[in-house]
């Protein structure tokens, strides 16, 4: 499979999972940052919707995964709960015309379940009102990386073999860098660079990767590991 930068998938072991990592499409906050220098963590931009260009990117990416057959193999989609990520995940893996549908309809049409989890959201900020906000200080990159490793460890414990993750550029990049630098998974340099909007990269993780000491002792503050069986998907 060759979808915008995929790892050379290792075929030596049957004990593996394939992860498809997608950065959200362009949001209105991206435009504000590029044109006005406005910070994306500002109150009006933090949970930004997709821009018209972002919606077009989603449509193009959906067409690509339909042509590749990827839509038929992904068993589960995990998304950040922020609007731009959820709009991207629904648009790609269900289609922009299928926002408010029942789970029965989704199953009947072979749509993978889409689940929103806090653990893979944008760099976190904390305040007294929100346990994920930190007195207007953004989460350190090393904490983002640790959160990413904790998330990958949880993904490994799930029964699905092929999972898509729709999240944010920094979270995805820091997770890949940690898997490469701290866990020792061989990843090409092209996989460790910044994600473009709506870019998809695929990697394969093996059982031996998950047995690394870095993951066995992985821990991260300020969030609780999500349940492995009880889900409420966003449609």
TrEMBL record:
InterPro entries, per the entry: His_Pase_superF_clade-1 (IPR013078), His_PPase_superfam (IPR029033), PGM_Phosphatase (IPR050275)
SUPFAM superfamilies hit by this protein: Phosphoglycerate mutase-like
Family the entry assigns: Belongs to the phosphoglycerate mutase family.
Name this polypeptide is given: Phosphoglycerate mutase family protein
Lineage, highest ranks first: Eukaryota, Viridiplantae, Streptophyta, Embryophyta, Tracheophyta
């Amino acid at each position: 499979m060759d979808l915008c930068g995929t790892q050379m998938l290792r075929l030596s072991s049957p004990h593996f999972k394939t992860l498809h990592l997608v950065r959200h499409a362009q949001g209105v906050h991206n435009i504000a940052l590029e044109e006005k220098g406005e910070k994306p963590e500002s109150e009006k931009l933090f949970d930004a919707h997709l821009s018209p260009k972002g919606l077009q990117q989603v449509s193009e990416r959906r067409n690509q995964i339909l042509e590749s057959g990827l839509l038929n193999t992904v068993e589960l989609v995990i998304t950040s709960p922020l609007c731009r990520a959820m709009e991207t995940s629904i648009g790609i893996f269900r289609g922009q015309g299928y926002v408010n549908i029942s789970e029965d309809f989704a199953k009947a049409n072979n749509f993978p379940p889409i689940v929103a989890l806090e653990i893979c959201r944008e760099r976190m900020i904390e305040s007294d009102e929100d346990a994920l906000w930190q007195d207007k200080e953004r989460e350190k990159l090393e904490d983002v990386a640790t959160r990413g490793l904790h998330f990958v460890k949880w993904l490994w414990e799930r029964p699905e073999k092929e999972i898509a993750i729709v999240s944010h550029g920094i979270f995805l990049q820091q997770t890949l860098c940690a898997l490469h630098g701290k866990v020792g998974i061989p990843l090409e340099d092209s996989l460790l660079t910044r994600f473009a909007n709506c870019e998809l990269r695929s990697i394969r993780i093996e059982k031996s990767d998950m047995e690394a000491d870095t993951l066995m002792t992985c821990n991260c503050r300020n969030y609780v590991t999500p349940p492995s069986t009880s889900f409420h998907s966003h449609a």
